[in-house]
Amino acid sequence: MVGSANLNIMIKAARRAGRALVKDFREVENLQVSMKGAGDFVSRADLNAETLIKEDLMGARPTYGWLGEEGGGAEGQDPTRRWIVDPLDGTTNFLHGLPHWAVSIALEHKGQIVAGVVFDPAKDEMFFAEKGAGAWMNESRLRVSGRSKMIEALFATGLPFGGRSDLPETLTEMARVAPACSGIRRWGAAALDLAYVAAGRYDGYWERRLNAWDIAAGLIILREAGGLAEPIEPEKDIVADGTIICANEALFSPLAKLVRG
């Protein structure tokens, strides 16, 4: 697929940051895993990756706005366009030497996500999409799964950690969904969860308390692959609210009904 100039800039930036993160990942695997030593190392890797991405994106499009997990937000001279970036989604996996993490870059135009890239450097899988142009993984066109029976479906979710107050709510949702399906996975990288639904690896996904940079790129990839998505409270906005339910067309309603109770 030949993408727009903006998409090519995003892919190039994701690959550059990904190469740096892979080098850091090889080192973090050899660190003694302590909250101080390894945690500080991962923070440096995260910040370095965001710096590289910002250099590429803002160097090419200096008038655009910026929202990054590490660097915060800044409005650009062009108030209609904004980069939304998570340089390392799946930090805890990275910290523990688990090769399941990603670089996530989205472009927002007039409040709508118009392009997204989710790059998994450990597996060399580049998921990307532009509005109206379909979704892709490397050279392959993506399509959500064709499963229509809940009992055959595999879903993903997130589990709150660190004593977060929404753990009971999430466990209640899982208790409703689990008996109806073939399994629930929690892999700890929201951008990849969305990309995996787009690729048909998962049949659906839901999660609460996400940030804009967790969702933005994966959301357009999912939708361009034919997936349906809504916030858990339907009248809200997914990116602003930070909650999502998504699935293929056949499974969306039954999954949403169980999650919403």
UniProtKB/TrEMBL annotation:
Q: Which residue positions does the secretion signal occupy?
A: none
Give the E.C. number(s).
3.1.3.25
Cite the InterPro entries for this sequence: IMPase, Inositol_monoP_metal-BS, Inositol_monophosphatase-like, Inositol_monophosphatase_CS, Inositol_monophosphatase_SuhB
Designated name of the protein: Inositol-1-monophosphatase
Q: Which class of enzymes does this protein belong to? A: hydrolase
Q: Which organism is it from?
A: Roseobacter sinensis
Q: Which UniProt keywords apply?
A: Hydrolase, Magnesium, Metal-binding
**Catalytic activity line of the entry:** a myo-inositol phosphate + H2O = myo-inositol + phosphate
Top-rank taxon of the source lineage equals Bacteria
PROSITE patterns documented for this protein: IMP_1, IMP_2
Look up the coiled coil feature and give its residue ranges.
none
> Which taxonomic lineage does the organism of this UniProt entry have?
Bacteria, Pseudomonadati, Pseudomonadota, Alphaproteobacteria, Rhodobacterales
> Which Pfam families does the entry mention?
Inositol_P (PF00459)
Return the similarity comment: Belongs to the inositol monophosphatase superfamily.
Q: Which cofactors are reported in the record for this sequence?
A: Mg(2+)
